[in-house]
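To: structure desk
From: M.T.
Subject: fold request, one chain
Message: Could you run this one when you get a chance? Sequence is below, nothing fancy, just the single chain.
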Amino acid sequence: MREFIKDGQWDEDTLRNTTKDLVQLFRKLLIAGGEDSVQWITPFGFNAAWEAARLRNLEVEWVGLCWNRGRPRWSMHSVLVIHKAILSLDFLQKRGVALANRCYLCYTDGETLDHMFCDCDNTWQVWSFLFEVCGWTLQRVHGITDLIEQFTQHFQRQTTKKMARMIFTTSLYFLWWKRNNRLHDKCVREAKELAKCIF
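Reply: Done. Structure tokens follow.
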């Protein structure tokens, strides 16, 4: 806080270089004498503190693509995939778990999220089938970010918005489900069969 105070007053030059929400929060605080004490102009409450401190209007482009009202599990799974927080084999290896790293969808490459949901041949067949059924064009993607960009194009149009959301969340969830079936139950399901389950 000392960087923002000069001669017992708020330093306007420093505040100008700070975000607008933070400046409004600081202006509500009174500078009192003594060691780092804070006095609120309005009655203090946790709700007021949260509202004053939280960041607003930082919506990412994919937020509407993920949140499907009908299936919160699928939506949450999509968010975890985007944040690369799914327990894939490479994720577990980075945390010290000793496992052989191979993709259980194609059995050829190591299992990373980008490979499993974008680069894997079985996954590519699923995406190709779904895009073809919708009449959309699909360009080869090489990561989750590229995949989000492809879906965001269709999410912008009002006519395809619900379809893009449904296909995105459902596909990510069922691809992960297919991977887990192959890993744990040794159950093999072909890509076209899975794509028909999704659609």
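Reply (cont.): The mean pLDDT is 78. Let me know if you need anything else for the meeting.
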